[in-house]
Amino acid sequence: MRLLCAVGQRDGAQVVHDALSLVGDVDFLALVHVIDDRPRHGVEAQRGLLRRISPDRQREIGLAEEAAGRVTLSEADSAARSTGKQIAAIETRLERGKPEQHIVALARQLQVDLVAIRTREYPDGFPRIGPPSVGHTARFVVDHAPCPVLLLRLVVNGHAETGEPRIY
Amino acid sequence: MTHIVLGALIFIVTLALIMIRPWRLSEAVIAACGGLLMLVFGIITPVDATSTLLGQWNIYGFFLGLMLISAIADAAGIFDVLAYQAARLAGGSSLRLYLAIFAVGVVITAFLSNDATALILTPVVYALVTRLRLPVLPFMFACTFIADTASFLLPVSNPINILVLNTFGADLGTFLHYLALPALVCVTLNIGLFTLIFRRTLTERYDTSTLARPQVDSKFLRTVTAGLLVIALGYVVASAVSAPVSLVALAGSVLLLGCAAWSRQVHWNRWRSDISWSLFVFVGGMFLLVRGVENLGLTTAFGQALLHLAGTSQLRSVALVAGGTALGANLINNVPMALVMISAIHGVQSPPATQMGMAFAIILGADLGPNLTTVGSLATILWLLILRRKGLEISTREYLKLGLAVVPVMLTLGVLLLWLRL
């Protein structure tokens, strides 16, 4: 099987571990992390006294994003190798742009049989407005991927009162 | 009568063009054209124009000094070191880091102006939290909001404060008497509200061992830090004795240039590009434009209309001025809006306490108001992104309702506290 695993900013190792434990033999594994540059564009659009953020600072942001992306992919790669599964080829890809579009495009380009993706990033974060089921990236991938999609929910630390793990 | 119609038309069209910016025309070009038209049609005389422009030397000097100081402080790595120390002291807790970033934002805004926080601290914090792999959005909201909310802590925290104080002749004591309490309450409210909104995201921890110490020239950093402390002290003393703060800003920038030369860290090209030269054209154009409508008696009429609307109620007058300025600041830009309001309030006869209350209400509206625009402009990009991440497609209108809830609360509280000081 050819598997593409979409890795978010955090919990990349967990996503890879969960995906590989659920699927059978994997011949090819693509680990993909897409730097979502929309928040960055929002910040760069800021204007002060008729001036913008300096090009040096913009470059620094880009470098920080790439450094964080490389760490994320490295963790995911280590997690894939530590599962003990015989995977013939592991490819890591660091992309920049809209995550949902890059994931779908890569799934098509790499001719994968399955895409594994977290239902949403930061499931416990941001104001709780609306349904907490599937995020917009995962939803787009489900709607547009050229192959089946495995949605992985996240199990996080125990509930404050009951101690039971929370599943997102 | 023709003059009045023509002057009003030039003024309105210029402001509308600044708001729309057709063909991505610079605001500076538009404002300069508006000012020139006032001159061409004889609404202001060349002598009047010259004295108006020269009379505002304090604000030009302050702008220049402020931008140079920020640029040199940035080159010395002050912002990077402050953000690094905040992350180190927070000890891996994203909540503590969030509060520390707010604290850094308040200090930078208070002494180096809102512009330094919005344009220099924000990208530094973005890079820091990205490297720590924490969610960036709560931190970006913290930086962009606190830049405005903390900008009426001191006269030098926002150039608009200087414009108002110049005209109404108030010193640091008066400024603090009226605005210290509203500023502290608004800053606390801002921090509390945002911490509450993002509390679930701020439970993440980060590994402090991954923190990279900023690469800075320690001699340059130390001398510039010492220079900044001297400048901060100079600002306080100058504001206290009603001396022109531009002298402190300009002398301070020379002092920091000396520090840079001593540390062999002079980066002329970079600092030249860090200065927004078009700002001087923009402000100059706006001064001429407002002088034009002032000559026609329009700003006085506007001021009288405001007083008429407010009646004898001081609370109503403060609320009207603060609310009107905040709305106007979002429609056009807070500098022209503040200039119009200053001219209107200064041109009418009213009891001294009422006039002072309205003057400080201008500061409140012009400083806090842009947070609405921050919400508006970031809405489509950032907030909607957050909500989409939650799987919720929300319309801009619905979002704006959410964003608009934050600023009016701060503005209302600020107005009430200001009124209580009258």
Q: Care to describe what's here?
A:
The complex is a heterodimer of chains A (168) and B (422). Chain A has five helices and seven strands; from the N terminus they run E-H-E-H-H-E-H-E-H-E-E-E. Chain A has 168 residues and is an alpha/beta fold. In chain A, strand 1, helix 1 (12-22) and strand 2 (28-36) form a beta-alpha-beta unit. Chain B is an all-alpha fold and 422 residues long. Chain B is built from 20 helices and no strands. Mean pLDDT of chain B is 85; it is low at 375-399. Helix content of chain B is 79%, strand content 0%. Chain B has helices at residues 2-20, 27-40, 46-55, 57-76, 78-90, 94-131, 136-149, 159-168, 172-197, 218-240, 245-262, 268-274, 278-295, 298-310, 314-331, 334-346, 352-368, 370-389, 396-404, 406-420. Chains A and B meet through helix 2, helix 3 and helix 5 of A and helix 4, helix 6, helix 7, helix 12 and helix 13 of B.
| Overall outline of chain B | globular
Q: Tell how many strands the DSSP assignment of chain A holds.
A: 7
| Unreliable stretches of chain A | 126-130
Mean pLDDT of chain A: 82
Which structural class fits the helix and strand makeup of chain A?
alpha/beta
Quaternary arrangement of the chains shown? heterodimer
Number of H/I helices of chain B = 20
Query: Which structural category do the helix and sheet elements of chain B fall into?
Result: mainly alpha
List keywords for this structure.
heterodimer, A: 168 residues, alpha/beta, 5-stranded parallel β-sheet, two-stranded antiparallel ribbon, 5 helices, globular, B: 422 residues, mainly alpha, 20 helices
Write the topology of this structure.
The complex is a heterodimer of chains A (168) and B (422).
Chain A: E1 2-6, H1 12-22, E2 28-36, H2 38-44, H3 55-82, E3 89-97, H4 99-109, E4 114-118, H5 136-144, E5 149-152, E6 155-158, E7 165-167
Parallel strand pairs in A: 1-2, 1-4, 2-3, 4-5
Antiparallel strand pairs in A: 6-7
Chain B: H1 2-20, H2 27-40, H3 46-55, H4 57-76, H5 78-90, H6 94-131, H7 136-149, H8 159-168, H9 172-197, H10 218-240, H11 245-262, H12 268-274, H13 278-295, H14 298-310, H15 314-331, H16 334-346, H17 352-368, H18 370-389, H19 396-404, H20 406-420
Helix pairs in contact in B: 1-2, 1-13, 2-13, 4-6, 4-8, 4-10, 4-11, 4-12, 5-6, 6-7, 7-9, 7-18, 8-16, 8-17, 9-20, 10-11, 13-16, 14-15, 14-16, 15-16, 15-17, 15-20, 16-17, 17-20, 18-19
